[in-house]
Amino acid sequence: MTDIQLEVVGVRIELPANQPILLLKEASQARFLPIWIGSSEANAIGIALRGVTPPRPLSHDLMVNLIEEYGDTLESVHITEADSHTYYAELRTSGGHTVSARPSDAVAMALVAGCPVYTTAELMGQAGIEGPEPDEEEVAQFREFLDHVSPEDFEGES
């Protein structure tokens, strides 16, 4: 079975239900894996994505610290399957240990540990959604704009 590497795009809020969605993107194409998650998990992922170090370890920091304290490291996270709307994940360590986890917790830990997130081709085929391909010309124009813009260009605008 082929593993597909995922990038953590972020957490979005689905309206009108105000339900957080963890959005993962296939690294090699414009396919996305959306996973509905809880508010506290969304907050933890947001903190990790912003690179904020809290004054005291949050649960996900604590779990990564515990793994490391016992002489192991979190090597990768794998979103392994979905049953109805429930997703399952595994934490895999460099010492060969595998621990079952909720995807939201696993992704938060991956962000803290700086390790990759994967899923299976089968799960991506079942639950993945196609996204729009980026328009390369628009991207090039935007990069050109960013290369030449300065804060003074926005003075006096409101």
Automatic annotation (TrEMBL):
Residues 3-131 form the BFN domain. InterPro entries: BFN_sf (IPR036104), Bi_nuclease_dom (IPR003729). GO terms for molecular function: nuclease activity. Pfam families: BFN_dom. PANTHER family: VON HIPPEL-LINDAU DISEASE TUMOR SUPPRESSOR, VON HIPPEL-LINDAU PROTEIN. This is Bifunctional nuclease family protein. It comes from Brevibacterium ravenspurgense.
